[in-house]
Amino acid sequence: MPKIWFVLFGLFSAILVLSEPAAPATPHQLLADAQTVLGLSKDDRILGNPDAPITIIEYASLTCPHCAHFANEVLPELKKKWIDTGKVKLVLRDYPLDEPALRAAMIARCAPPDRFYAYVDTFFGAQEKWVTARDYRDALARLVKLGGMSQEEFDNCLKNTALENKIVEGRLIASKELDVNSTPTFFINGSKFTGAPTVEEFDKVLSGLSAKS
């Protein structure tokens, strides 16, 4: 296992509350270095119109129940009102809390870019089943087979150490530069959103930004 993964294990043991939702507060602007980290890159997968004036960046773990709740219950409402109308785009970035989350993130990244969110939605929707399975890898393999990924492609993806290191490095950078220490954590147009991840709370912030654009 690559050295960087052992570093991540050390962080797992050091952070006590990783999957708790953030306490309500107003968004606040981040420093310039953090803004650089939040800049979109070719590795980012965009949900919605890439030219949408408002950008939500979500740091999430595919094994985090709070992230699954957001994906399954909150995001569909935000999509209808904000994303599908071209006002907002969402970018999910990986912040794996454990090895199963890392492996699932790798699988989603190995999917064709236009299938990334379909895989993510599948993993969140079936989270309770594959996370608690006796062999989570077999459970994931069965899920992605339905999405068109062969067993060979699945196995080769999990052997991709370059991808593994990139995901782990992204998590370390988010922790260091953006002070991400829980999932889900959101940034909206460069400001850290620390309110409750509800439709109502997002509507307040997005409405304010939409009025300015």
Describe this structure in words.
- With 213 residues, the chain is of the alpha+beta class.
- The protein has one domain: Glutaredoxin.
- Helices cover 54% and strands 12% of the residues.
- The protein is built from 10 helices and 6 strands, in the order αβαββαβααααααββα.
- The chain has helices at residues 3-14, 32-38, 65-83, 99-110, 116-125, 127-131, 136-146, 151-158, 161-177, 199-212, and strands at 28-29, 46-47, 54-60, 88-94, 185-188, 191-193.
- Strands 1-6-5-3-4-2 form a 6-stranded mixed beta sheet, sandwiched between helices.
- Helix 3 runs parallel beside helix 10, helix 4 (99-110) crosses helix 8 (151-158) and helix 4 packs across helix 9 (161-177).
- The longest helix is centred in the middle third of the chain and has 19 residues, at 65-83.
- The radius of gyration is 17 Å and the shape is globular.
